[in-house]
Amino acid sequence: MKFLLPVLFLVGSISLANAQYVNEAPIGELDADYLRIWSDSGPLLSSKITVRVDYGQGGRIPQITDNRRRVVSFNGMIAVLNMFSKEGFELIEVVRDSKDETEIFYLKRKEGSRASASVGKGTSSVE
Q1: H or E segment to which residue 51 belongs
Q2: CA-CA distances (angstroms) from residue 117 to 51, 60, 111?
């Protein structure tokens, strides 16, 4: 019995360790069908990047964080795109900003992924 509690705590903390958030909301539960993302330079003296996410929320554009509100660093934009794909989004366009040479990625929610997220919230559709 004493062994079971630490094991359950460890399993629970591992599953939370990979959660990604924007404005304290899980990425898969963002109330948006379209996103605009781009990279910032990551930590000083590192090859990693951090990412900003604009989904029409207004105000300061937030970075992706973990469950402790720490900014998450990625190895590159492909890692970010793969994560967003798992969260129900797909890439629709990449645009290079000629001013500062930043690549801006536009994503949209995959067909049907909103419906699966809404089921858990108690919403339903009536035909």
Answers
A1: strand 49-54
A2: 23, 26, 12
